[in-house]
Design a protein that fits this description.
The complex is a heterodimer of chains A (333) and B (351).
Chain A (H helix, E strand, L loop, with lengths): L4 H24 L7 H8 L6 H34 L11 H15 L5 H23 L8 H23 L3 H12 L7 H20 L1 H7 L3 H6 L4 H23 L5 H13 L3 H26 L7 H19 L6
Chain B lengths: L1 H5 L5 H36 L7 H8 L7 H33 L12 H14 L5 H23 L6 H24 L3 H12 L7 H20 L1 H7 L3 H6 L4 H23 L5 H13 L6 H21 L7 H23 L4
Classes of the chains: A mainly alpha (333), B mainly alpha (351).
Chain lengths: 333, 351
């Protein structure tokens, strides 16, 4: 299905416009009403007084939502490309729980507390789990069918989650911070956090984006891709590492945020088609827009409290997941 | 094959009959051994603890005499706890194996496909947001377990229910419900949080007869229903088309089995929390012990009871900290679970 280039560019511009708008909304709207002059002052760097200080905390928060959403959207698109599986998503592949177990063990047994070490640990945990789930999900006849992959992911998540409980239960001192991390949100964002993950995210984005051409070839099947001169194993490995670094780093700072990586690429495919050179950047933009929008909604609907963005994305994403499953023929599951 | 080889002149029918008889004997032996183990475990968990009592004391308490000291510890603390362990284990085992057999996939147990998540989310909500007491929480958990199961069934219905679609939709629903549970927990006050967490991990702490009785009644009513469906259940393993050709009303018997199995799970969950992986592990373990070709319902129920009983006992005394039973079964079950995934995907088979 070819789409005219003009149309794709228009969609991309529109998505960027929506994202910019949402970022503005995210900075202006919160549980506290703030006047425009204070907002502009805060954007200029002032943080004196309640109103300006409130706006000043919204800036890193918005930035993290944008970055995390972009990373998750792109990571999902790459994973679906690498596995050729429509349900591949960091959450479904158990990446979140894997990162959680690694972080929790690090806190409990090795006294880890610095942000950088946590990110490394989370990435390792995420990568190991994703690899494990994908491997066992693709054993046997038919390769990685959606059913096998989803079951392997769900079962592995359940298994790892009970390890997390066992680690946390006797440790009242870390239980609180683990629990708040486990929900997944961008509310606690600081510029410091963002600065720590930035290098990881840049590496992830670059690796993922460079593998776009290879993913197009892989979509034709391994044999054809090899025939087209693609080194299949290398291409697949590089793309997978990029995707895992992206979602692992995001999970480390923002906690598990599910379903963004599942929903966004599906929506993007409807709009710009299946060419990964377009799909990947578009997924990133739309993912950022989705997460920023969800964060704003979470601040509005529960005033003066907030609903963390990880919960909203699950509420939005699970119905989409069910829709995708229902639409496919039984044979394809 | 070896059977046929040993009867070079005998008829095949005779060989089949013999192997059937052998399997029946094996199943009966396994059931007897499991039942004896449960009785032994039950008695041990009544006798052994911080203070130990002699079998004679325990028996006198069980038969209603008042023994100083033992009367309280055994009669009020250990007896309801051990009884609930056995009953909940039976429920989980029976419910779990029904789902696994019906959906022809050992990974499709109620704790993976969202039924336990429904009960858990509702319980967390009613403990933390509504501030309900334990009875009300149980009722809410039971009702919402059933509602969620039926919702999953309805969502998976598209000119008939395919097992694969049911499993996938269950996983999606579970993800949504789990995130709601996480949100509710994040809003909790410290005391409510402890109650809710204890409930969510699955624990027999503070068991009483008022919790145990409903589980007993549910088992009494629903277990015969499931056992009565066991023929349909084993035929449904041949595939929906074959089963309906053999005279099974597939959709009807599936709805009956789902309601009965979910009922058992929901009542047990309401009393003891979703004890991790018992529903999941009982069936596959039973099938390894009993072997192929016989009904797994009773052996799986017994394995479930044994798992909960032993898990609870180990959780209380085997480690430095007292772990609730759900953590013990979860951690011990996880490696077996992963082994099971690998094996299932390799072989592509059912239980």
């Amino acid at each position: 299905m070819r789409r005219p280039k003009r149309l794709r560019s228009l969609w991309l511009l529109a998505a960027l416009g929506v994202l910019t708008l949402l970022m503005l909304v995210s900075i202006t709207i919160g549980s506290r009403e703030v006047g425009w002059d204070d907002i502009f002052a805060a954007l200029g760097g002032a943080a004196d007084g309640f109103d300006r200080a409130a706006v000043a905390t919204r800036i890193p928060r918005t930035l993290l939502a944008v970055v995390a959403g972009a990373a998750l959207g792109m990571s999902g698109a790459v994973m679906q490309g690498v596995t050729r599986n429509p349900l591949a998503d960091p959450g479904i592949l158990g990446v979140n729980v894997g990162a959680a177990l690694a972080v929790v063990s690090g806190m409990a047994y090795f006294g880890l507390s610095s942000a950088t070490s946590m990110i490394w640990v989370a990435i390792v945990g995420a990568g190991a789990t994703a690899l494990f789930v994908y491997t066992i999900g693709s054993l046997g006849r038919g390769g990685s069918t959606p059913l096998k992959l989803a079951l392997a992911g769900a079962a592995t998540s359940a298994a790892l989650a009970s390890f997390v409980t066992a680690v946390v239960l006797p440790r009242n001192d870390i239980a609180g911070s683990v629990r708040s991390w486990q929900i997944g949100g961008v509310g606690g964002a600081t510029m410091e956090n963002i600065r720590v993950v930035a290098p990881f995210l840049i590496v992830g984005f670059v690796l993922s984006f460079l593998s776009a051409r290879a993913l197009n070839a892989l979509a034709l099947g391994d044999d054809l891709a090899a025939g087209l001169g693609e080194r299949v194993a290398v291409a697949r490995g590089a793309a997978a590492i990029g995707a895992v670094v992206l979602c692992g780093a995001v999970t480390a700072v923002a906690g598990p945020i599910g379903f963004v990586g599942l929903v966004v690429p599906h929506a993007c495919r409807l709009l710009v088609g299946v060419d990964h050179r377009w799909l990947l950047p578009f997924s990133a933009v739309l993912g950022a827009a989705l997460l920023t929008g969800a964060d704003v909604i979470g601040r509005i609907i529960a005033r003066p409290a907030e609903i963390d963005v990880g919960i909203l994305t699950a509420l939005i994403g699970a119905p989409v997941f069910i829709y995708i499953v229902r639409r496919r023929k039984v044979r394809e599951l | 094959m070896s059977l046929l080889a040993t009867h070079p002149t005998g008829s095949t029918a005779q060989a089949v009959a013999e192997s059937r008889a052998r399997r029946r004997i094996r199943r009966r032996t396994v059931i007897t051994v499991l039942a004896l183990l449960i009785v032994a475990g039950y008695l041990v968990s009544l006798m052994v603890g911080q203070t130990n009592y002699s079998p004679a004391d325990v028996l006198r308490v069980v038969f209603g005499q008042d023994v100083p000291g033992a009367g309280f510890t055994v009669g009020r603390l250990r007896l309801p706890r051990a009884t609930l362990a056995v009953l909940a284990g039976l429920c989980f085992g029976l419910g779990g194996v029904t789902f696994q057999t019906m959906l022809r996939n050992p990974l499709a147990s109620p704790d993976i496909i969202g039924i336990s998540s429904g009960a858990s989310a509702a319980a967390a909500f009613s403990i933390i947001v509504l501030g309900y007491g334990s009875t009300a929480v149980s009722i809410v958990a039971i009702v919402s377990g059933l509602v969620v199961a039926l919702a999953i069934y309805a969502l998976a219905y598209k000119g008939g229910v395919a097992g694969t679609r049911l499993i996938l939709i269950g996983i999606g629903v579970a993800a949504m419900l789990d995130s709601m549970t996480a949100y509710v927990l994040s809003q909790a006050a410290e005391w409510d949080l402890q109650v809710a967490m204890r409930w969510l991990t699955g624990s027999l702490n503070g068991s009483s007869w008022t919790q145990t009785l409903p589980v007993f009644v549910a088992l009494l009513v629903l277990a015969p229903v499931l056992l009565g469906q066991s023929r349909n259940l084993s035929m449904s393993q041949l595939g929906d088309d074959t089963a309906s050709a053999l005279g099974v009303r597939v959709e009807r018997s599936r709805v009956i089995m789902i309601i009965a199995a979910v009922g058992l799970i929901a009542f047990a969950t309401a009393a003891a929390g979703p004890i991790a992986f018992v529903a999941f592990l009982a069936g596959p373990i039973a099938s390894r012990i009993v072997g192929p070709g016989v009904s797994l319902l009773v052996p799986a129920a017994l394995v479930g009871a044994l798992l909960v009983l032993v898990g609870d006992f180990a959780g209380q005394y085997a480690f430095g900290t007292r772990f609730p039973v759900g953590v013990v079964t979860g951690v011990l079950g996880a490696p077996y679970l992963i082994y099971l995934i690998i094996r299932t995907n390799r072989a592509g088979g059912s239980l």
